[in-house]
């Protein structure tokens, strides 16, 4: 497809396709077996997004889920608006193009950027939005992240009840729920190394932690609508697990937090667009 095709106002009642598609800044777009997608290019670097339809899901984990934590209280969440989520973690090539430097320990254009803290991510997002007007990307909320990771599943992983190192990058010496041991790569791998989930999203389990917009806090006891986390806190949420973590920590429901100024060689980000997040404070 080419960018000569005009933007079309779609039927807002059909959540399968966003009302405005494609966006003026999109370099290419389309629809496949995973849904609607759209991408942009900056200095020759292409980065794709997947359309995530609005809907509801059970966030957190059942009391019967093996190796769960107490902070994963399961509750119903309704997301009233669709949003775009990057199909991969932000690559080092894109970060380098925008920021002019690459802080990552494990170098590789197609590997996820790491060794970035939450504050670094805000600087990157601000610069990216400045060079591509109208794109208005940010970080996903914690609820948006888990909803997209699950892609309609209710199991510990979007792959099912268990996971192996042929499906995700984590420390295979410590498998989930007494599963067989696997490989420990001791470093990140390139994005799109492993199969995507049913919504076309890659490496939602393992490789690098992904910063979310929310402050960390306890889940509500009751159902919630478009949650954005507490108004303040001492740690920002990270999701997904990483190359250095065990199988327990790459579950869909697992929650991690760190100080906004903390940098680690297993923490990166995944861009989102169209989220209904509340005010962000530094």
- The overall strand count is 15
Helical amount: 10-25%
Poorly predicted sequence stretches spanning 5 or more consecutive residues? 1-9, 275-282
Query: How much strand?
Result: 15-25%
Cα radius of gyration in angstroms: 18 Å
Overall CATH class: Alpha Beta
CATH architecture label name: Alpha-Beta Complex
- Strand-pairing-aware structural class: alpha+beta
Largest sheet: 6 strands, antiparallel
Instruction: Tell the overall outline.
Output: globular
Mean pLDDT: 93
Short summary:
Residues 8-20, 258-268 have a biased composition (Basic and acidic residues). The protein has helices at 92-99, 118-131, 142-150, and strands at 8-9, 20-21, 28-32, 35-42, 45-52, 55-59, 75-79, 83-86, 137-138, 209-215, 224-225, 236-239, 256-258, 267-269, 272-273. The protein is of the alpha+beta class and 282 residues long.
């Amino acid at each position: 497809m080419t960018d000569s095709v005009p933007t079309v106002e779609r039927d807002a009642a059909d959540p399968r396709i966003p009302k405005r598609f494609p966006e003026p800044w999109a370099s290419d777009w389309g629809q496949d077996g995973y849904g609607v997608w759209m991408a942009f290019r900056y200095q020759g670097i292409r980065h794709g997004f997947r359309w995530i339809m609005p809907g509801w899901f059970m966030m957190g984990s059942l009391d019967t889920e093996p190796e769960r934590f107490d902070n994963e209280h399961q509750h119903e969440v309704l997301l009233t608006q669709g949003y775009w989520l990057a199909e991969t973690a932000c690559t080092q090539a894109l970060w380098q193009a925008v920021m002019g430097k690459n802080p990552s320990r494990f170098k590789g254009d197609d590997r996820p950027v790491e060794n970035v803290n939450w504050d670094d991510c805000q600087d990157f997002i601000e610069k990216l939005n400045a060079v591509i007007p109208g794109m208005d990307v940010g970080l996903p909320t914690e609820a948006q992240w888990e909803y997209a990771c699950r892609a309609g599943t209710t199991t510990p992983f979007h792959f099912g009840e268990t996971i192996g190192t042929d499906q995700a990058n984590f420390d295979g010496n410590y498998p989930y729920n007494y599963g067989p041991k696997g490989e420990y790569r001791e470093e990140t791998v390139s994005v799109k190394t492993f199969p995507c989930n049913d919504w076309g999203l890659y490496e939602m389990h393992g490789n690098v932690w992904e910063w979310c917009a929310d402050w960390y806090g306890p889940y509500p006891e009751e159902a919630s609508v478009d949650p954005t986390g507490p108004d303040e806190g001492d740690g920002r949420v990270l999701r997904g697990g990483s190359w250095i973590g065990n199988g327990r920590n790459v579950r869909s429901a697992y929650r991690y937090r760190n100080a906004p100024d903390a940098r680690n060689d297993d923490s990166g980000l995944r861009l989102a667009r169209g989220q209904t997040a509340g005010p962000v404070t530094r």
